[in-house]
Amino acid sequence: MPTALWIAHVKVTDAERYAKYAAGATAAIADHQGVFLARNGAYEQLEGNDRARNVVARFPSLQRAHECYYSEAYQAALKFAEGAAERDLMIVEELD
């Protein structure tokens, strides 16, 4: 079964609220066997919208990433991100 990547591009507008989201999201991702590959590191914007916070996490499968997003723990954390950031988030299945 192919692994999957959770990819987020974020512009934080309220750092205090977003920090609360990040703490809860980190725990939810770990609970679903997600492992961070990139998180708010240096980057070079080549095309599209520039959002300074970029996060990539790997999950054992697309289903596990999906389950994480819709989990009670992640949805509780997500409430802190509402109004605290502009975000794009997707899950993408990796090639075998």
Count helical runs: 3
What would you say the CATH architecture is?
A: 2-Layer Sandwich
- Helix and strand content put the structural class at alpha+beta
Mean pLDDT: 97
Q: What name does CATH use for the topology?
A: Alpha-Beta Plaits
- Give me the side-by-side strand order of the main sheet: 2-3-1-4
Please give the domain count.
1
- The proportion of residues in beta strands is 25-35%
Task: State the name of the first-level CATH class.
Answer: Alpha Beta
InterPro entries: Dimeric_a/b-barrel (IPR011008), DUF1330 (IPR010753)
Pfam families: DUF1330
Domain DUF1330: 3-94
Describe this protein's structure:
Residues 3-94 form the DUF1330 domain. InterPro entries: Dimeric_a/b-barrel (IPR011008), DUF1330 (IPR010753). By secondary structure, the chain is an alpha+beta fold. It has a single domain, classed as Alpha-Beta Plaits (2-Layer Sandwich), CATH 3.30.70.100. The protein has helices at residues 15-31, 62-69, 72-81, and strands at 4-12, 35-39, 53-59, 85-93. A 4-stranded antiparallel β-sheet has the order 2-3-1-4. Helix 1 (15-31) packs antiparallel against helix 3 (72-81). The termini are close together. The mean pLDDT is 97.
